[in-house]
Specification:
The chain is α+β, with helices and mostly antiparallel strands. The protein is built from ten helices and 31 strands. 56% of the residues are buried. Bound molecules: MU-OXO-diiron and calcium ion (2 copies).
C-alpha cells in the first residue's frame, strides 16, 4: 500500500495493467479482416458514406431507418446533472433511503456498531465493507414478490485506512495486528439480509430473520466441486483433500440463478497473497494471475495460508465462482470449478432454448477475456435437482471478429491444442489455468470486461468494457488507444439461443464526453451534456428491458469525465437507442455498484462503494487523500465522529410506480 493512497486507488490502477502471459496476443489477423470489411462496405451504396465508421455508428443508422415502437419518454424521470459533492442525488420525483450501512447488525444478536471499539467478532455478525453486487431473491421463494425478499450482497474489499482511528498513512505496516487483519477478513465476503417494505412504503431490514447470514473468508467453510476438486494442485497443508477451503473474498459483480442460489465471483484474489513462491511448478500460473499482488494486504503475516512460502498452492483455491443457497442458512457454499479460474466479474445468467443454464462472466483485467459456461443438464423446476448442475458443462471464451461476428471457443481438454503438448494433463488443469488455455485458443483481449447482462426480453447480452489506459493497438471491439472511457458491447446470439457458439456483435455506445471529437465518443444526440458517462461497470436490466449502467472511474474520474460516478439508464432499442440519462449520482470518492430491481421494478437497490476514497485529491476544495479523521465526505451519516460508510441505498418513485417511470 503506497503512502497517501487508499487500497481502492491501488486496485483501480493495477486492474489497468495487463498480466504477464506466455502467449502474446497478435492482432495482425484482426487488422487484415478490418481492411477486408472496409472493402465490403464500399460496395453498399448508402453505407459507403459510413465506410470508415465503426459498427456502433452502423447500428445506430440501421435503427434510425427502422424505428421500433419506442416512446420518446423512455426515461420517465428528470435527469440528475453531472457534478461532484459530498452527497448522493436522485431526481426530484424519486426518493432515496439508506437501507444498510457498513457495521449495521445482520445476524441475530449482532452487536450495534461501535466505530471506536470494533472487533472481529462483532464484524462477523455485522454488514461488511464495500458493498458491491446486490441480488434479490423474492420471498416466498418461487413468487414474484416485490415487497419482501433476501438481499444477497458482496463485500468486495476493505479500505482499512478509512475504517480505523489512528491508521498511520505513512507507515501502515506498523498498524496491523491479528485482530485488525481479522476485522478486515470479517468485513469481506457477503451478507444475506431479509428486507421488507412496510405499510408506509419504506424498505427495512428484518432484524430477526432466520435467513440473515454473513459469508466471510475468516469463518465460512466451503467445499470445492467440479473438475478441479481434489486435484493435487488444490491440496495444501491445511487441506490435504483439496476439497475444503475457508471462505471467499474480493467478490465483485455476481448473479442469482433461476433456482434462487447466489453466485459469488472471486475477482482480484492475487492482492491477498504475499511472500516467496515455494513451488516452482506453479510459477508461471501465479505470474499469469498476478500472484503475489504487487501491493498485497498483510493477511499473510497472520494467516500462513496467504503466505506463498508456506502454502504455494493456496492461490489455486481462489479465482472461482462460489454458489451459496440463501434459502438454507445452514448450507455450506460450494466453489464450482467448472466455471473456470480467473478474475471473475459477474455471473448473470439466461436459459438456452432447450432449458440449460448459461452463465456469462468477464475477466476484469486489461487484455483479458469474456467467458460463458453452458450446463450439460437442464434446469429442473425442483430446486434440489439443480444442486450439482453447475459441475458439468462447457466453458467457452469469446472471439470477436472485425466484421461484427463472433464465436464462442470451447475450453475442453484434448481439443484444439488444449492437451499435454501444451502442458495440460486434464480438464482440471484447464480450469486452474483458464487464462492460458484461452490465450492458446486465440480469444480476443478486451478493454477490461466487467459485468455482463442478458436481457431476457430480447435475448441480447450487454458487456461493459470499462476502460484500458494502456491499449496501443486497436481493433473493432476495442477501437480506441489509451481508452480512459470504455464502451458497451451488444451481443446477439445466433438464432436467439444462448447455447449457440456463433453471435453477432456491435458497440452500442463508446463512452466519454461527446463534446470533444478527439475522445471519439458515440451516443445518440439526445443524450445531452449531462447524460453521457465514462467507465461502465455493473449492469442491470429492469422489468421493461431497459439497461442500467453503473460507473466506476476510480481515482481517474477527473480525467475520464470530471463528474462523480453514477447510475444511468441507456436506451438499447428503437429510435432513441444509444441515449443515456443519469438517475443517481454518488458522493465524492465512491463508485456505484449492484443495481438491482425488485421484479416489478418499484424498488431499485444500489450499493455505494468506498465513499470518500477514490480520487479525493482531485476534488476541488479538498485536494488531499481522505483519512479516518479527515475524509472528503462523511456520507451517509454526516456525523462528526462517524467516518464514511459504504451503504445500500433504496430508490423508489414518489408515485409508487416503477423506478425511472
Ligand atoms: Fe471489482 Fe471489476 O470491479
Ligand atoms: Ca465491478
Ligand atoms: Ca469496480
Amino acid at each position: 500500500m503506497g503512502k497517501n493512497k487508499s487500497f481502492g486507488e491501488n486496485f483501480e490502477e493495477l486492474d489497468d495493467r495487463p498480466a504477464a502471459r506466455s502467449t502474446a496476443p497478435s492482432l495482425a489477423d484482426l487488422w487484415n479482416r478490418r481492411i477486408a470489411r472496409r472493402g465490403f462496405l464500399a460496395g453498399m451504396g448508402k453505407a459507403a458514406l459510413l465506410a470508415t465508421a465503426s459498427p456502433a455508428i452502423l447500428s445506430l443508422a440501421a435503427c434510425d431507418e427502422t424505428p421500433k415502437a419506442a416512446p420518446d419518454d423512455i426515461f420517465g424521470f428528470e435527469p440528475v446533472p453531472h457534478g461532484i459533492d459530498g452527497d448522493h442525488h436522485v431526481p426530484a420525483d424519486h426518493l432515496s433511503d439508506i437501507l444498510l450501512r457498513w457495521g449495521d447488525p445482520v445476524v441475530k444478536d449482532a452487536p450495534d456498531f461501535d466505530i471506536r471499539n470494533q472487533t472481529a467478532a462483532a464484524q462477523l455478525a455485522q454488514f461488511g465493507y464495500n458493498n458491491d453486487f446486490i441480488g434479490f431473491v423474492p420471498l416466498p421463494f418461487g413468487s414474484n414478490a416485490s415487497d419482501r425478499g433476501l438481499l444477497c450482497v458482496h463485500h468486495e474489499y476493505t479500505n482499512d485506512d478509512l475504517m480505523h482511528p489512528g491508521y498511520p498513512a505513512d507507515n501502515p505496516a506498523s498498524f496491523y495486528t491479528q485482530e485488525i487483519v481479522d476485522i478486515a477478513m470479517a468485513a469481506h465476503g457477503g451478507s444475506i439480509v431479509e428486507v421488507a417494505r412496510g405499510e408506509d412504503g419504506k424498505w427495512q431490514v428484518v432484524r430477526d430473520s432466520e435467513y440473515n447470514r454473513r459469508i466471510t473468508p475468516l469463518a465460512t467453510e466451503m467445499t470445492i466441486s467440479g473438475p478441479a476438486a481434489g486435484h493435487p494442485r488444490l491440496q495444501t497443508g491445511e487441506d490435504p483433500t483439496g476439497r475444503r477451503v475457508m471462505g471467499t473474498f474480493n467478490n465483485c459483480a455476481g448473479g442469482i440463478t433461476p433456482w434462487g442460489t447466489w453466485l459469488m465471483s472471486e475477482e482480484n484474489f492475487n492482492f491477498y497473497f504475499l511472500g516467496e513462491n515455494a513451488d516452482e511448478t506453479e510459477a508461471e500460473n501465479h505470474s499469469r494471475m498476478g500472484v503475489p499482488g504487487s501491493r498485497s494486504y498483510p493477511w499473510g503475516h497472520f494467516h500462513k495460508r496467504f503466505n506463498l512460502a508456506a502454502e504455494p498452492r493456496e492461490p489455486n483455491r481462489y479465482g472461482w465462482v462460489v454458489e451459496v443457497d440463501p434459502l438454507d442458512p445452514a448450507s455450506m457454499p460450494v466453489k464450482r470449478t467448472a466455471l473456470g479460474r480467473f478474475k471473475h466479474e459477474g455471473c448473470e445468467n439466461a436459459l438456452t432454448k432447450d432449458g440449460r443454464l448459461v452463465v456469462y462472466m468477464g475477466d476484469d483485467q486489461a487484455f483479458e477475456y469474456l467467458y460463458k459456461f453452458v450446463t450439460a443438464g437442464k434446469v429442473s423446476a425442483k430446486r434440489e435437482e439443480n444442486a450439482s448442475l453447475l459441475d458439468e458443462g462447457t466453458l467457452y471464451v469469446a472471439r470477436f471478429e472485425e466484421d461484427g461476428s463472433g464465436r464462442w471457443l470451447p475450453l475442453t481438454f484434448g481439443e484444439n491444442g488444449l492437451d499435454e503438448a501444451n502442458g495440460f494433463t486434464s480438464q482440471a488443469d484447464l480450469m486452474i489455468e483458464t487464462r492460458r488455455a484461452a490465450d492458446l485458443l486465440g480469444a480476443t483481449p478486451l478493454d477490461r470486461p466487467e459485468d455482463v447482462e442478458p436481457n431476457d426480453l430480447t435475448g441480447k447480452v450487454y458487456v461493459a468494457l470499462t476502460n484500458s489506459k494502456e491499449r496501443t493497438e486497436t481493433d473493432a471491439v476495442n477501437p480506441r488507444p489509451a481508452n480512459l472511457w470504455g464502451q458497451i458491447v451488444e451481443i446477439e446470439p445466433q438464432g436467439g439461443d444462448h447455447a449457440s457458439t456463433a453471435f453477432a456483435w456491435n458497440l452500442i455506445v463508446k463512452c466519454g464526453d461527446p463534446a470533444f471529437p478527439s475522445i471519439g465518443a458515440e451516443w445518440h444526440p439526445d443524450t445531452g451534456s449531462d447524460g453521457w458517462f465514462a467507465c461502465p461497470d455493473n449492469l442491470a436490466v429492469d422489468a421493461k428491458g431497459r439497461l442500467w449502467v453503473a460507473t466506476d472511474q476510480g481515482s481517474g474520474w477527473h480525467a475520464a469525465s470530471g463528474t462523480a460516478d453514477g447510475l444511468y439508464a441507456l436506451a438499447t432499442a428503437g429510435g432513441k437507442r444509444g441515449t443515456a440519462r443519469q438517475i443517481f449520482r454518488a458522493p465524492v470518492g465512491a463508485e456505484v455498484c449492484g443495481p438491482c430491481f425488485t421484479p416489478d421494478g418499484t424498488a431499485l437497490f444500489i450499493a455505494v462503494q468506498h465513499p470518500a476514497a477514490d480520487g479525493a485529491k482531485n476534488y476541488k476544495g479538498f485536494e488531499r487523500a481522505s483519512t479516518f479523521d479527515d475524509p472528503a465526505t462523511r456520507w451517509p451519516d454526516f456525523e462528526p465522529d462517524m467516518p464514511p460508510r459504504p451503504s445500500v441505498v433504496v430508490i423508489t418513485a414518489k408515485n409508487g410506480g416503477p423506478v425511472g417511470g
